[in-house]
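EI: anyone free to look at a 334-residue chain?
SC: sure, send it
EI:
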Amino acid sequence: MSKIIGVGTDIVEVGRVLKSCEKHSFLNKYYTEAERELIKRRKSCAATNFAGKEAVAKAFGTGFLNCMPEDIEILRDEKGKPYVNLSEKAEKIVILTHELPDGDAVGSSLATGLALEEMGKNVDIIIPEYSKSFSFLPKIDKLKKSSDVEKYDLAIALDCADIKILKGYTKYFEKAKTKIVIDHHSSNIMYGDINFVNPVAPACSQVLIGMFSYFGIKMTKDMATCVMTGIITDTGGFSYGATTETFEFAAEILSLGVNISEIFRRALHTKNKANFELTKRAMDRLEFFEDGKVAFTYITGQDQEEVNAVPGDHEGIVDVGKNIDDVEVSIFLH
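SC: here you go
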């Protein structure tokens, strides 16, 4: 599900940590409320948790430069196995994605925002423009064009392989205290403090489903609608890139009452006028090379201006060439 971004180790003197814990100021500064309750029951956890926090910070490669000890919470599951919660105290959170967002970018951003709201967080999702074909998505009205927040506690970049394609919104990411990247592109340059990248997954939205399960986040019908939209659009309606997990997740999402057929229709088959006009122009320019194995077409900036297109209105045009018999590669430039 993710690539390890680093390995951190730390050694502490148990007696020294326990002595420091006699001071309430030390406990309050270095441990969360849940950790303090754990330490009351088992004092030795103070030392192991302190070492664990240091190790996690070292694994980030930044130490405590971008995160504080209390931002790294180490608890135990029912079997006593330790696990880490990060940025539980983040109050100002922003979600970002790449320019010209497709269904996976919009869907995964909304799903993440909804998940964080379920955790009681206030979230800004900054997507200035998007195709109206995604207007059916739950909470789409929550998307913002920009923000007045100078520095966020946590920034999450979704479906974005390189910080450069965040375009004019890199400032929100770069200035944030903690930066998380969630993606499925093998070309991802790992530009976050924490990077969850699964290049086997056909969509960022599919990566999220695994993460929700791992972190114990119950997926609601609205969240499921958003991630399913991302999966459907990035796999062309399950026609390419889908894995065994993709269909297992689809079955799970169906059980939540999500109408997958309707998502398929709205996201892939329903076209607005701008998309229809751009598709016509692309079809008129379609050329074939290499004995019909390569299809090539394009639209220009002028084309998009003339039909009043907005970002995302080019979606699906690449399929014009791809759906032709004997075509192995479809190239669409815009």
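EI: Residues 59 and 168 are 29 Å apart (CA to CA).
SC: 👍
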